[in-house]
Design brief:
This protein has 206 residues and is mainly alpha-helical. The chain has 6 helices and 2 strands. Helices cover 56% and strands 2% of the residues. A two-stranded antiparallel ribbon has the order 1-2. It starts with 15 loop residues before the first strand and ends in a 5-residue tail after the last helix.
């Protein structure tokens, strides 16, 4: 597969289309479309210089995965902050805030600890990137861990909010739906597990 400039695809006379998929429950700001090409031919002169087939297109994944590793921390922090403020405000049983309950404190302690660890992981990968020493499996580790962490934070926050956890008044369920999408795109949790496994064992399990 060669990488070619396809600006000519979108001329009205070319049989190509990209209908938008409107059935997603994930990020609304990200437009997802199916790509349909019917008898499309791209001339050789449109070949992008320095490309090496599909590898060139996939090279952008490292940058995208690195960005995700940071972005999901923000979602986790939003869920944590919402759960913390709600637990201090919501009173139940003996007119005490639910933040006084051991199980609620356990969830909050887990969330802030994992968020901090995720920040340190992303920061270290960023330092390696700046130094030109980052490897694809470093980025896979950050993407895999941080997305999992953020999704767990969203689920714990939803638990703390109870029925309000699915209400539009609070951002938790929106973040949870978005994170379910992020868990899949740019490589699933299992794919990154295999990337890390291959790096530590030297054996490719794909």
């Amino acid at each position: 597969m060669a990488a070619r400039c396809a600006a000519s695809w979108w001329k009205p006379t070319v049989p190509a289309s990209a209908p938008r998929m409107s059935t997603e429950n994930g990020p609304c700001a990200s437009v997802t479309s199916s790509l349909s090409l019917q008898d499309v031919k791209i001339p050789k002169e449109n070949l992008l210089p320095g490309t090496e087939g599909l590898k060139s297109a996939l090279m952008c994944l490292n940058q995208a995965r690195y960005g995700i590793a940071w972005g999901v921390i923000g979602a986790a922090m939003a869920c944590y902050d919402c759960a913390l403020q709600y637990s201090l405000f919501r009173k139940q049983f003996r007119d005490q805030p639910i933040a006084s309950h051991q199980l609620v404190q356990q969830k909050l302690a887990w969330m802030i600890t994992e968020i901090t660890k995720a920040q340190l992981l992303a920061l270290q990968v960023g330092r390696l990137k700046d130094e030109g020493r980052v490897q694809h499996f470093h980025i896979s580790m950050a993407k895999r861990n941080n997305v999992w962490m953020a999704l767990e934070c969203a689920r714990m926050a939803r638990d703390i909010l109870g029925a309000n956890g699915i209400a539009d008044e609070y951002p938790v369920f929106r973040h949870m739906a978005n994170l379910e999408s992020v868990k899949t795109y740019e490589g699933t949790h299992d794919v990154h597990t295999l990337i890390i496994g291959a790096a530590v064992t030297g054996i490719d399990a794909f």
